[in-house]
Design brief:
Order of helices and strands: EEEHHEEHHHHHEHEEHHEEHHHHHE
Distance between the termini: 58 Å
Strand content: 15-25%
Number of helices: 15
Strand order of the largest sheet: 1-2-6-3-5-4
Number of strands: 11
Radius of gyration: 23 Å
Length: about 425
């Protein structure tokens, strides 16, 4: 039997949503895709972990919206959503909070009324807020037993600064200290038409858009606000920091190098290069440190793009006796990418992997919506998807080597290790 021919991925095009504006100015991005009578609504609001006096305020506020409105208590909200076959999720990110509602179209009007109630008229009941705080404290206690969490927390503290919301260590005191007044203030500051965008995806009818305008188009105007910067408020200091956890079974390694903004012409080439380094299973780091050396079960590298800055991030876990060797091999692989060009066959595999990853974002109306949630929250230009494809297809080994020489400076690393110190 002859093996089927393998063809390169071509003609990837991101579906462009249509845009309508509600009566009060809230923009709605409509992703009309598919015949199944289901839909998803994302309520995106400016204001996130970078805002308020700590990162937990945004997390608690968005979670607490599901715990009661002027019309329904938490049990009633949960029971009605379950009855209508709907599902509601809440998330707080660096600069935004997001509510995500999945629903059957035949129940759209009823479910939308519930969503409008918790967005516009939350009550933040004390008992439910106390339960959410208890859950958060328990999660924190669990996380503090994980070396990966300890390394990540210390990395944030050293990279962003201890007085930055993204760098300050979370504590039980911070969690318990968030007041109902703070939640109310955060909600009133950010949940206004000037700060809200809506994405609706699926089989979307004109009547559904009309219902959105009925429920959300009459929200009272507020003040347009800008989320605080995610740029570090301390000067970057290359160093190696160690967090002792004597009973750790493995050590966690977190390495970072400051990088460039998404708007820089080198940003996408740097993403491709970092994928080659450690962004997929066949990457340089996985092949060397896992497959050849056997130092770890997994290691990864990525370019973490924030709204205002980015960082090349590498993470792994290994036996404490291998910690120094893993760090040394990481540096060797980065130096190799600076010295020599990537073979064409390897570059072909990287192209195939990255294009396949982009293709997955086109699979369903909800995956397309996920792309636009990220685009809007991070203020990514509309042509970014197409530019990624063009650059991935056109990039040369020589260009990648030049990019490595500019940004893979192993003398400029912040290295954090959490676990047992070896003698």
């Amino acid at each position: 039997m002859q093996r089927p021919a393998i063809h390169p991925i071509k003609d990837l095009k991101m579906l462009r949503p249509s845009r309508v504006v509600l009566s009060n100015g809230i923009p709605v991005y409509v992703i009309q895709f598919g015949d199944d009578q289901v839909s998803r609504i994302n309520i995106l609001t400016e204001g996130g972990k970078c805002d308020s006096n700590n990162a937990f305020t945004a997390e608690l506020m968005i979670a607490a919206l599901r715990e009661g409105s002027k019309d329904m208590d938490a049990d009633r909200i949960a029971e009605r959503l379950d009855f209508y076959g709907a599902w509601l999720a809440a998330d707080a990110a660096t600069h935004n909070t997001t509510l995500t509602l999945h629903t059957l179209n035949r129940n759209f009007d009823q479910v939308l009324s519930i969503l409008a109630g918790i967005v516009q008229n939350p009550v933040f009941p004390a008992h439910e807020i106390g339960n959410l705080k208890s859950l958060a404290i328990n999660r924190l206690r669990t996380n503090k037993e994980k070396v990966s969490y300890l390394a990540l927390q210390q990395f944030g503290n050293l990279y962003f600064g201890p007085n930055h919301n993204l760098g300050a260590a979370m504590s039980e005191q911070i969690i318990d200290g968030v007041s109902t007044t703070q939640l109310q203030n955060f909600h009133s500051q950010w949940f206004a038409p000037e700060n809200i965008r809506i994405i609706i995806a699926g089989s979307v009818s004109d009547e559904m858009i009309h219902m959105l305008d009925q429920k959300f188009g009459s929200m009272k105007h507020g003040v347009g606000r800008q989320s605080a910067s995610d740029c570090p408020n301390v000067k970057f200091c290359p160093q190696t920091a160690f967090i002792e956890k004597a009973d750790a079974l493995q050590n966690a390694i977190r390495i970072g190098i400051p990088a460039i903004a998404r708007t820089d012409p080198d940003y996408i080439p740097l993403r491709i290069l970092t994928t080659a380094l450690g962004g997929y299973f066949g990457s340089r780091l996985m092949t060397n440190i896992r497959e050849t050396k056997g130092y770890t079960y997994g290691i990864s590298a990525s370019l973490l793009g924030y709204r205002n800055n980015s960082v090349i991030s590498i993470s792994s876990q290994c036996d404490s006796s291998y910690t120094a060797a893993v760090v040394e091999e990481i540096k060797k692989e980065m130096a190799e990418l600076c010295q020599n060009t990537i073979p064409h066959d390897e570059l072909r595999r990287i192209r195939s992997y990255m294009l396949s990853d982009l293709a997955r974002s086109l699979d369903t109306p909800f995956s397309v919506a996920d792309y636009y949630v990220s685009m809007l929250n991070n203020r990514i230009p509309e042509d970014y998807f197409d530019r990624q494809i063009d650059i991935i297809n056109a990039i040369t080994p020589e260009r990648l080597r030049d990019v490595a020489r500019r940004y893979y400076d192993t003398s400029n690393m912040l290295i954090v290790v959490a676990g047992r110190e070896t003698t």
